[in-house]
Structures are given as structure tokens and as C-alpha cells.
Write a structure and sequence with these properties.
Elements (H helix, E strand, L loop, with lengths): L1 H16 L3 H5 L1 E11 L2 E17 L6 E17 L2 E10 L11 E23 L5 E3 L4 E18 L1
Antiparallel strand pairs: 1-2, 1-4, 2-3, 3-7, 4-6, 4-7, 5-6, 5-7
Length: 156
């Protein structure tokens, strides 16, 4: 189990490091997305969980989004409610309008939980594919779970 968790962490770090430096510089942080993901069961080859998120921006009203996160790949186990915090980045020329985060996102996800666990998600998408949800997010969850999968997120 330790080797598997080590491999998962190494994969996440390598994926984060693979983001080109010029791509990171071409984006500006525009806020933070706080999400509560419903608990559920990983069905070996994937899962689907509902979530509620709040987009926080300085000087603006908070926006609430409802969505679904789907995973395709290794996803085994059971988790309780999960909390995910993403930094939200936009292209420098993207004007962030009301409800701008609504849309579809794609990327990857990795999690490891034995009692209490951590995970990382990196997703790009939204309106006109102009947003990146922090290349590596931070999440806290409880349960027994191992996941390394492609992820899709829909916010509405």
C-alpha cells in the first residue's frame, strides 16, 4: 500500500511539474472555488459524484455553482463528503463575468485515503475554455479510497 501511495504522489508531482512555465505565466489568478463533494463509492473503473461550489472573488458577490465530477480510470473505495479548494486562473485577456465558471472542465485526478486522505485535481475548461482550476488542488476527505483517473467536471 505504501508503494502504491508513493507512486500516486509521484505521479501527481510529475503532472504538476509538466505544466510549462510560460503557460503558468499566461494566466492570472481571479479567485478561489470552494467545493463540497458528496460521498460515494468508486466503482473500480470510475465514479460520478455531485457537488456544490462557491466562487469567491475580491470585490464581487460569491457565486454558487452545482455540478458533477466524473472519473474514468482506477477508482476503488468509499469516501465521505470531500472538501476541495481550487485557485481559479484565467487567461490574461479573459474578462471574468458573472456565471463565467459554468461549463465543462477536463483533466486528471489522484487521491489516496486510509481514514483521512488527500488528493489532487487539475482541470481546464469553463466558458470558452478560458479557465484553469489550479493545476493541483488541495482536498481533504475521509474513507478508504485509491483513485488515479481522468476527470471531467461540469459546473452549472
Amino acid at each position: 500500500m505504501k508503494k502504491l501511495i508513493g507512486a500516486l504522489v509521484a505521479s501527481i508531482v510529475l503532472a504538476a511539474a509538466a505544466v510549462p512555465a510560460d503557460a503558468a505565466q499566461a494566466r492570472v489568478q481571479v479567485g478561489r472555488l470552494s467545493c463540497n463533494v458528496e460521498g460515494g463509492v468508486g466503482l473500480i473503473l470510475g465514479s460520478s459524484k455531485n457537488m456544490t461550489c462557491v466562487f469567491h472573488r475580491d470585490g464581487h458577490r460569491n457565486e454558487t455553482y452545482h455540478g458533477t465530477i466524473n472519473k474514468l480510470g482506477l477508482d476503488i473505495g468509499v469516501t465521505r463528503r470531500t472538501r476541495i479548494e481550487w485557485l481559479v486562473f484565467a487567461a490574461t485577456n479573459t474578462q471574468v463575468r458573472s456565471r463565467a465558471l459554468a461549463g465543462n472542465y477536463v483533466g486528471g485526478s489522484g487521491e489516496a485515503t486510509v481514514g483521512v486522505g488527500v488528493g489532487a485535481n487539475w482541470l481546464i475548461g469553463g466558458s470558452r475554455r478560458g479557465f484553469a482550476l489550479q493545476p493541483v488542488s488541495v482536498q481533504a476527505q475521509t474513507g478508504l479510497n485509491l483513485s488515479l483517473a481522468l476527470a471531467g467536471l461540469t459546473l452549472r
